[in-house]
Design a protein that fits this description.
By secondary structure, this protein is mostly helical. Helix content is 81%, strand content 0%.
């Protein structure tokens, strides 16, 4: 057997393939960015170089970690709370057409609420020392993708499977556990994966508009106002890494759930 035909080699290549191309593209982009600044095409005052951002990132790593903990906590609370509410309402909507029709315009309205308009209102309502407004904004951003994913999943159960469960005299709970839940789970976890990035972005944006200043969004705004742009970009890098972490964790949950249910 040749190396090229070894399935272990092919499997390893295919496993790294989806990750290798984005990483390579990112490296090329950073190199070009650094070259543009070094050759003087763009003033570093306007756009800091990657090297300057990395220096600030290392220097302010403890502050970035503390800010990421605050922003990540708000995003996690919003993601969890928004997902629970979305799943519960989707379950009700899937079982009652009338309620589905009532919720449809509300879900559409939530999907287009401008965060920049809502954040100051909620921060003022709950006070300058409370994170509740930011958590609610993250929850609102989470709600729509999780609701739509769950509703679609709950409606994927084939009628023949329901008829089969009724023929076996299965209870409603048994039908839900054996047929409906396994069918809906992939759609639910996909909705949560999509919502994870939205929760982080929403929490960051909400931190620009009042409330405690410990989160990444508030610190980015503070250093940008002081014209410390490289430092501000360092906190942006921290926010990017936080978003990637949320996405990676929820993607892992999605893969585990699909694997246990036998989905590819």
């Amino acid at each position: 057997m040749t190396v090229a035909s070894d399935p272990r080699v092919r499997g390893g290549s295919s496993a790294w393939g989806p990750l290798a191309w984005p990483v390579a593209l990112g490296v090329v982009g950073v190199v070009l960015w650094q070259a543009v600044i070094a050759l003087g095409f763009v003033d570093e005052y306007v756009l800091p170089s990657p090297a300057a951002i990395v220096v600030e990132f290392v220097a302010f790593l403890p502050a970035i970690a503390e800010g990421a903990a605050v922003t990540g906590g708000n995003a996690a609370v919003g993601l969890l709370g928004g997902s629970v509410v979305a799943i519960a309402l989707a379950a009700v909507a899937a079982s009652r057409r009338l309620i589905d029709g009532m919720l449809a315009p509300l879900v559409a309205a939530l999907a287009v609420i401008p965060i920049v308009a809502l954040a100051p209102v909620l921060n003022t309502m709950f006070g300058a020392d409370s994170q509740t407004g930011r958590q609610m904004i993250a929850g609102i951003a989470t709600f729509t993708p999780v609701f739509l994913g769950t509703l679609r999943g709950l409606r994927q159960t084939a009628p023949v499977h329901r008829d089969l469960m009724r023929a076996y005299a299965a209870s409603g709970w048994q039908s839900f556990r054996v047929v409906t839940l396994p069918t809906a789970t992939p759609h639910v976890v996909t909705g949560i994966r999509i919502a994870s990035s939205l929760a982080v972005i929403s929490a960051l944006v909400a931190e620009y508009f009042g409330g405690p200043r410990g989160g990444l969004g508030g610190l980015i705004s503070t250093y940008a106002a002081q014209s410390a742009y490289a430092r501000s970009w360092a906190f942006v890098l921290g926010a990017i890494l936080l978003g990637v972490l949320f996405y990676a964790v929820t993607s892992g949950v999605e893969r585990v759930a699909n694997a246990r249910l036998g989905h590819r």
